[in-house]
Structures are given as C-alpha cells and as structure tokens.
Amino acid sequence: MQSILAAHEKRNESLHRFYHPTFQKDMVKLQPGDVYVTDKPELITTGLGSCIAACIWDPKLRIGGMNHFMLPFHGHHEAIKWHADEFVSFPARYGNYAMEILINALVRMGSNRPDLRIKVFGGAKVMDSIIAIGEKNIEFVMDYIAREQMDLVSFDLGSTCARKVLFDL
C-alpha cells in the first residue's frame, strides 16, 4: 500500500491548483481517478455525473480529503453481474481502491478511523445506457460505508443532474 500512496502523492503534484478570489482561498480541482488529502485550509472541488466523490474529514485533527471514482467494475460483462455483496470481487476495485487510498492517507496523517466523517455525492443518470453506472456506483459506495462502519454524515446521490462539489476544509 505504501507504494500506491507514494504514486498518488506524486500525482497530486500535477493537480490543477489556483487561487479562488471569491472564497479567498487556494483551490484544488480533482479529475476522475484523483485522490487528494490535506491539512491546509483549502477548497477541494470536482464535477460529477455518474461518478462518485467521497469527502472524508477528521474534525479532531482538522484534516480531510476527497476522491473521485468512476466505476466499481471493469467492463460491461462485470457490470451486468456485479452486486454490492461482491465487495472483494474484481468489479469493485476502482471504487474500493479510491476509498482505501483516501482513508489510508488520512490514517497516515494521524487520524483514527472511528473519528472520520464522510459525505458522498454523485451517481447521477446523465446518459442513456444499458448499464446504470450511477446506480452501481451508489450501491457500491453505500455498501462500502456500511461494511466499514463509517460515520455517514450526509449524501446527495442519484437523480439525473450533474453536480459540482466544493469541499471547504
């Protein structure tokens, strides 16, 4: 896991960063597949359709982060047969990978898993498709949160509208 975290830290160096004059804070914009954790008073933002973003923070240490994952499965065949109870199956790797990277990065910064709070967003049906990607992402993330016994504070999932998420640490 250490080498995976190191690879993501290196990727974080190339994230789109800018100063947001309205909020008078630095902002980091995530793309699909990005994971970002910080202890700075920054804003983290992303845009979502069928993807999911999890915002996780530790209120005691005042650190947090966000991920943005696209799929809990690899392809059409796996998507058709995937179910939330297949937590360790190949189809769940993408969402599981993003969630584990985010949580482990916070733990490495000193958080205790029971102290973490989570909000999740996305999973919209934005395209006509045989595969209900948004629904499968929602099923995966809600099952993950329940299995890991995480403190789910809030969620905004489903619908047919895209979302912009702004996480103010």
In a nutshell, what does this entry contain?
The chain has 169 residues and is α+β, with helices and mostly antiparallel strands. The chain has helices at residues 2-12, 76-81, 93-108, 133-147, and strands at residues 16-20, 25-29, 35-38, 43-48, 52-58, 63-69, 117-122, 151-157, 163-168.
Overview of this protein structure:
β1 (16-20) and β2 (25-29) form a beta hairpin. The chain starts with a helix and ends with a strand. It has helices spanning 2-12, 76-81, 93-108, 133-147, and strands spanning 16-20, 25-29, 35-38, 43-48, 52-58, 63-69, 117-122, 151-157, 163-168. The protein is globular. The strands form 2 sheets. A 5-stranded mixed sheet has the order 3-6-5-7-8. The chain has one domain (2-168): 60s Ribosomal Protein L30, Chain: A, CATH 3.30.1330.200. It has 169 residues and is α+β, with helices and mostly antiparallel strands. It is built from 4 helices and 9 strands; from the N terminus they run αββββββααβαββ. Residues 1-8 and 84-93 have low confidence and may be disordered. 28% of the residues lie in helices and 31% in strands.
Note the main sheet: 5 strands, mixed
- The helix count comes to 4
pLDDT below 50 for ≥5 consecutive residues: which ranges? 1-8, 84-93
The end-to-end span amounts to 26 Å
| Strand coverage percent | 25-35%
Number of domains: 1
CATH structural architecture: 2-Layer Sandwich
Question: What is the helical fraction, as a range of percent?
Answer: 25-40%
Give average pLDDT, whole number: 83
Give the strand order, joined by hyphens, for the main sheet.
3-6-5-7-8
